[in-house]
Amino acid sequence: MTRPGTPVRGRFITFEGPEGAGKTTQAARLEAALRARGVAVVSTREPGGTVFGERVRDILLAAPAAGRPEVDPIVDALLFNAARHQLVSEVIEPALAAGRTVICARFADSTRAYQGYGGGVPLETLARLEAVATGGLTPDRTILLDVPVELGLGRKAPDDRTRFETAFDVSFHQRVRNGFLAMAVAEPTRFVVVDARGDPADIARRVLRTVGPLFADAPAGGEPNPASVRIPR
Ligand code: TMP
Fold this sequence. Notes:
The protein is built from nine helices and five strands. Helices cover 48% and strands 11% of the residues.
């Protein structure tokens, strides 16, 4: 039973998807829409979201050093999970415990999709790393913004491309996309697949509809009159 004055745990919402799916845009739109309804929101991203994690992000996304060997996908998996552990303990868990909703652009499913389905690291190995990094934390809702690989890759300006866009070929990204879709089929309660082609405002409305049920009776993290939080359908 919850003690009086103890905030009800916040909701944890993640955005996932292949390159160029519009996660950053849609996460910002969802944050604005929820805030407008009085929901206390903390937005973050992976890799990153902490000082340590942003440093790890720089290492992970930098172009490979010319003439040096490629790192094995397990090395990437270890680093993504190291940054994840820091983010969970420093940002996500405290926010959820304080009753805030957390929106995170990418989370553990990205490691399964990229280093697992894409890079070939066994999914059982990744599951063990994930359990350590997250302590068992699982999103309440994962919005998979799905976009065809060529379309998504083409959306990024050449200057914005990371190592994952320049050093990995189209078939890698196809495996990533298929991996995300396979995870969505395997966990239909947690995942919602949203077609990420088309008008961002339409996509944002669809995203908002998918998270509405999470807020049907939830207090809004200390904001006044939480019962008035209503997500339009
Ligand atoms: P983005 O968040 O700006 O899309 O860039 C992050 C890149 O890192 C993207 O190419 C996906 C990749 N990535 C992984 O390969 N594994 C992971 O676990 C995460 C979080 C991201």
